[in-house]
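Okay, any thoughts on this one?
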Amino acid sequence: MILQLICGILIMALSLSLFFVLRYMRKHQTRNDEGTQKA
């Protein structure tokens, strides 16, 4: 049961971080499209 709780928290944290990263990338994609492709 403890393992399930830890796994659930990890999955939630990963999905939240992915969501914020995608939002951040979308915000800066239009300004510096070539820069993001290089990196």
